[in-house]
Amino acid sequence: MIAPSHSQLERLAYLEMRVYFVGDLRRGDLENRFGIKPAAATRDLNAYRALAPGNLEYDTSAKTYVPAGGFQPVFGFSAERVLSWLRHGFGDGQGQGTQRAVPCEGASELVRPDFSVLAELTRAIHSGRPVKVSYLSLSSGASRRVIVPLALADNGLRWHLRAFDRSRGRFADFVLTRIAKATALPERAGSQEQLAADVQWGRMLDLELVPHPGLAHPEAIHGDYSMQHGVLKLTLRAALAGYALLRWGVDCSATHCLDAASHHLWLRNPGVLDGVESAALAPGYQQSGALA
What we know:
By secondary structure, this protein is an alpha+beta fold. The protein has eight helices and twelve strands.
């Protein structure tokens, strides 16, 4: 067999990642992603099957390739690259319009999740199926739960899974690295368990951040954050806002009573957090949250 070219290796790596983390691949996916002809896409599929004979199965009813039961990745993907691809869309160097197969938002230092667990979860997100997981919670310890994975989110320190928790009947966040095992279930998730029904995820907040009133030289903060007229305006999902405000150390108290030496920013419109579950994490703002 002739050794694959560098460009073909890139296509084979994409092929493997797509099958592994999304759970399906059609020849057209290669054609659309790389702008190649059907014959070239067929050659790539044949080359990958020669490289990893036991990794692909063809689902004749869905007319798509799926990961075989004994799937073993042959490319050495790093956690940073996999999560970056999931976050920005499959394909390095593509424009912002690239469609993402899995909802995934955020950017920060990356954890190192178990890829077999991550792949099970991302395939479940893509296919809309629930999974049975073994989860270790700080509040309740080890447990088995059935959840409906919906999206990945980076809170700045670690990755979370946004999911519907059937045991509690509500949407919640699960720390990705605390999921020790995940097994997909055959049924489809109900409409009330899907991302469109997650009010906290769908609600967008307009935050107004200003230099903390306790600072002697607020102009320094203006420069740090490229503020316009002394204000940094951001739009964040309600489900993620508390994590962001915690990471940035924003004083979210109505009277800006936190120490300005530790909190250089103040949320000028703290009322925007009313009814936001993640606001329990925001410095100076007290409310019960939904972190599992």
